[in-house]
Design brief:
Elements: H1 2-24, E1 30-33, H2 41-56, E2 63-66, H3 79-85, E3 90-94, H4 95-98, H5 117-124, H6 127-138, E4 141-156, E5 171-174, H7 178-186, E6 190-193, H8 196-205, E7 210-214, H9 215-220, E8 230-232, E9 238-246, H10 247-252, H11 255-276, H12 286-293, E10 297-299, H13 303-324, H14 326-337
Parallel strand pairs: 1-2, 1-3, 5-6, 8-10
Antiparallel strand pairs: 3-9, 4-7, 4-8, 4-9
Helix pairs in contact: 2-11, 5-14, 7-13
The structure holds (2S)-2-hydroxy-2-methyl-3-oxobutanoic acid (X2X).
Length: about 350
């Protein structure tokens, strides 16, 4: 009897010790990386995730936002590697910036694959989204939820662009993956890869003539002030955001706290997608109107004009399909077809 009581007491103290050890292994701060800061929906999603996590874990998990991909010196294409290495604890990252390491994420950048927001949802909210989360898990990063940067439109300082011929010889800043070099070269333009931090001075100095980004980003970054006077609504691709956590950090949290972080990501992601899509539709063109009010000429190519962009970039689509995986691209096309 005494022996049994002694054993029970030992077990209880071990449990307490275990609990304390787990609590002590929580760090005072977890670093969350984003490219854009709180002036943009992307950075706001970071703040919101942190706020919801604090609430749902009763303050046990404190997340601090590091915008400007500052934990990797602004080099957004190194963000994914830094998450794997534990330099970054959590991130909300664009599929574009992670696609140099996760080749399947180039899917979203295939020129003219995604025609509209429903097309994005058909991928992220369906089988393709699940497949891509499995791919990210194979890279030893924990994916939790989808957000959105948005449909990327083309701007420049020189002239209205309606067809590939209008882009001939024009210098464009492009992002992340080499796929973009191929796409812009196929269109007859002269692409240069650089980070977002470098893009704005390059536009201001005229080192490059144009760039591509979602309208909400164009507007919040005030790209009209750096000479971007022409905008083409060509809807050539859309980049989702993915909420992730470093796998060791994830493993260090209790199951209940992990679930809280996941639910917070799902909620912040849902709110982020809604915000990213505001003001850029026929029903609510408020952001487009603001951009026009700032002196930017907005061009919407006709179906025939758009078809010329699609045709010119088709070889790039086919080349990159092999890199991404033919099965995955076929699945994506089928899901978009049924949207
Ligand atoms: O660099 C960009 O253009 C941006 C901010 O949209 C991304 O990080 C993909």
């Amino acid at each position: 009897m005494i022996r049994r009581m002694f054993l029970a007491a030992c077990t209880a103290s071990l449990l307490v010790a275990g609990g304390t050890a787990a609590a002590q292994s929580y760090r005072a701060e977890y670093r969350l990386s984003t490219v854009l800061g709180p002036a943009f929906a992307w950075g706001q999603a970071g703040e919101r995730w942190a706020e919801l996590v604090k609430e749902k874990t009763q303050g046990r998990i404190h997340i601090k936002l590091y915008p400007g991909t500052s934990l990797v010196g602004g080099d957004q294409t190194r963000e994914f590697t830094a998450i794997r290495q534990g330099v970054i604890d959590l991130a909300i990252g664009s599929t574009i910036n992670w696609s140099p390491q996760v080749r399947e994420l180039n899917l979203f950048s295939l020129p003219f694959l995604i025609p509209d927001a429903k097309g994005t949802d058909a991928l992220t909210q369906g089988e393709v989204g699940k497949d891509l989360f499995k791919v990210i898990e194979r890279h030893e990063v924990v994916p939790l939820a989808w957000g959105e940067n948005g449909s990327r439109e083309l701007s420049n300082s020189k002239r209205p662009i309606r067809t590939p011929a209008d882009m001939k010889g024009m210098k464009f800043r492009v992002v992340g993956s080499p796929l973009f070099l191929d796409t812009f070269s196929a269109l007859g333009a002269n692409p240069t890869q650089m980070s977002w931090a470098d893009a704005q001075p390059a536009l201001a100095s005229g080192a490059v003539d144009g760039q591509e980004n979602p309208l909400a980003v164009f507007n919040a970054a005030k790209l009209h002030n750096v000479g971007q006077k022409h905008l083409t609504l060509w809807h050539y691709m859309s980049d989702p955001l993915i909420f992730v956590v470093n796998k060791d950090v994830w493993a260090s949290w209790s199951p209940a706290d992990r679930e809280a972080v996941r639910q917070a990501a799902i909620q912040a992601g849902r709110e982020n997608v809604e915000k990213a899509r505001k003001g850029i539709t026929a029903a609510d063109p408020s952001i487009i109107k603001q951009i026009e009010a700032n002196g930017v000429a907005v061009v919407a190519p006709t179906a025939a004009e758009r078809a010329a962009f699609v045709a010119a970039t088709r070889p790039v689509f086919e080349k990159w399909t092999k890199t991404i995986g033919t099965e995955l691209v076929k699945k994506a096309e089928a899901a978009i077809g049924k949207r």
